[in-house]
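Q: Fold this one first, please.
A: Sequence and structure below.
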Amino acid sequence: MLPRRTLAMLISASLSAGCAIGPDYVRPDMPLPERYLGQAAVDQRHATASADLVAWWTGFGDPQLTRFVILALEQNLDLAQVPARVAQARAGLGAANAALLPSGNINGQAARTYQSVETPLGQVLDSTPDFDRYGNACEVNLGASWELDLFGGLRRGREAALAEYQASEADATATQLAVAAQAVDIYISIRGLQARLDVAHWQVQTQQDLLSTVNLLYGKGLAAEYQRRQVEGALAQVQAPYRFSRQVWTQR
């Protein structure tokens, strides 16, 4: 039969098992609009072709872009630190789970002694028949403990560790998304600048050919002075953005 003190402790623990320090976590109600700007275009694109959300940049169908994004993900230092942060959070969750379970320890030691015959006790024992000067001693200790979570502090700690672990995984996904998005943005910006350079170069070449034709007609008296000046002005207008785009391209 259990002692009264032990029985009282067990009853107290069972009654307080459903209680914990602090209120339970309640997910906040975040009102969101039913539709967002550009949702119709996104829905239409999803209806025509479904892209891989894990490697969404492959939806552009550009192998060069895919190669650059993969290189950015492999060489980014922030992403290199993400596995360590996730492992640290996972270890914290494991420690919080272990704190709710019983713990035990076992240790042992052994010793071997030698009795000297130079001491008075050794001389007396040495005269004893079949005296063994060597002795062995072994000791094994076993211990167990279990911290009762009477007020729910350990359970709250486990909830916090689980939230930190989930946050670390979400942070890993967000970091990967940010690195990939930045790489795609830079690549598209460069491609756009290249396209602008091609268009500007084509416009300059067209105006230069037109100016050559007008100069030829002007030399033969078939074009007026103002026509030649108009073409020269149009050439200067297209040369300015072309030079600016080349300067930006060189700086990049």
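Q: Good. Now the second chain.
A: Here it is, same layout.
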Amino acid sequence: MMIVYNPAAGQRRAQRLWRVLDILADSGLRIELAETKYAGHASEIAKRAAEAGVPLIVAAGGDGTIAEVANGLSGSACRLGIIPLGTANVLARELGLPFTPRAVASALAFGRTRTLWPGMARRGDETLLFVQMLGAGLDAQVVHRLPLALKRRIGRGAYVAQTLREIARYPFPTIRLRIDGEETEAASVIVTKGRLYAGAYMLAPGATPTEKGFTVVLFDRSGAASALMYGAALPLNMISKMPGVRLVRANEIEILSDHVPAQADGDSAGEGPVRITDAAMAMNVVVS
């Protein structure tokens, strides 16, 4: 078992990881810890380990780290494990993974798996695998501008603070899309594999990352007032019922507009245009 971990994640998260490692070591399992040194390093580590025949590679971190490791495992038979150490841990909550150190260690040792079908975003010759969602518009602008130090200091609250800053200055350009061949427009867009967003908040009821296809959440109303309304509805799990919100099931989505900020699994994903489809293969994720 190899565990891929970002040493810059913070002391509190490191302590949680060490507790899991202690329990695994006490169980007699052989563990190798690989620390990342730069963006994209987790993908490189995972790819080399999968090619070397490591059967289980564990992402210790949040959704961005999980996506990087999953990207490295894409196309291989290697299983993906998760130690949830992120700010929101959306995929871990989506799959019902455990969070306590003993339960996490037990799940990894037992090795029962569930299928995960990631998404793939393509921009020119570049490809980016994501495990939960890709957003374009205001939420991506928040991710692009979010100070890392603030995120480490106050966690999820940093997104709230940055959202309030961006609402005042984001121009809310109209985003042009093509969804399964039909063109439409929206103020903001979230293309999601699963139900949840920003933690345990309900975004797209009925969606699941274990199957092919996406739910496209289209926010038709633009401007600061509408953004605040949608933001207030999120913790109430009311987003899907709000006026000006459309949910569309789709297999292929193209964000056609230029220079629209994009984010994938909480990390910056550049700008549009971008084409989104399912990854070529599903992968197996270790669950509880």
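Q: Anything worth noting on the second one?
A: The two ends are 17 Å apart (CA to CA).
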